[in-house]
């Protein structure tokens, strides 16, 4: 069970999900209402209208509290993902506003450590101080169910692949992303980008190959 602590309502999703998740975390409509700063009847009404609108029962109501039904547990699990995604959407929008759309999100993992990109970053930033770099942990790029590569452009702009040839990358992902071979820091590697990369991502890749190592 998640922590029944302070929670803020809001986001680009059905806000009734805040009430549903809070009630699931707290096991009580009254505690969830207090957490969200609303009255208990108002919170109960939100949940009841959600249940009625979609024809599903989310909670079993008892004198000991409220408990998720199997359908409710499924909704809450997906709701948490939706809420996290909403936070990412708003964060990226604020970054776009703050930095003029010049933040590049570089996906990194144990299999994709992005050595060349990270080593070259100081010189890239020196060449174009308007660029900002954000490191984003990613899952297994070879797991189709995770869809890390297929969803490039969502939470990640660029992935650097150093242990697979460009030809192999074309076979794996040629239909879902843009693949470019670069030589940076004296090492040949492959960058994976969305089919329509942001101007900042395209600028980053161009500089990645063109900046010269310091003597």
Automatic annotation (TrEMBL):
Superkingdom in the source lineage: Bacteria
The UniProt record lists the keyword GTP-binding: no
| Domain spans labelled HTH lysR-type | 15-69
Q: Alphabetically list the UniProt keywords.
A: DNA-binding, Transcription, Transcription regulation
* GO terms for cellular component: protein-DNA complex
- What Pfam families does its record include? HTH_1
GO-annotated molecular function: DNA binding; DNA-binding transcription factor activity
PROSITE patterns reported in the protein's UniProt record: HTH_LYSR (PS50931)
Instruction: Indicate the family of this protein.
Output: Belongs to the LysR transcriptional regulatory family.
Q: Which PANTHER family match?
A: HCA OPERON TRANSCRIPTIONAL ACTIVATOR HCAR, TRANSCRIPTIONAL DUAL REGULATOR HCAR-RELATED
Question: What's the protein here called?
Answer: HTH lysR-type domain-containing protein
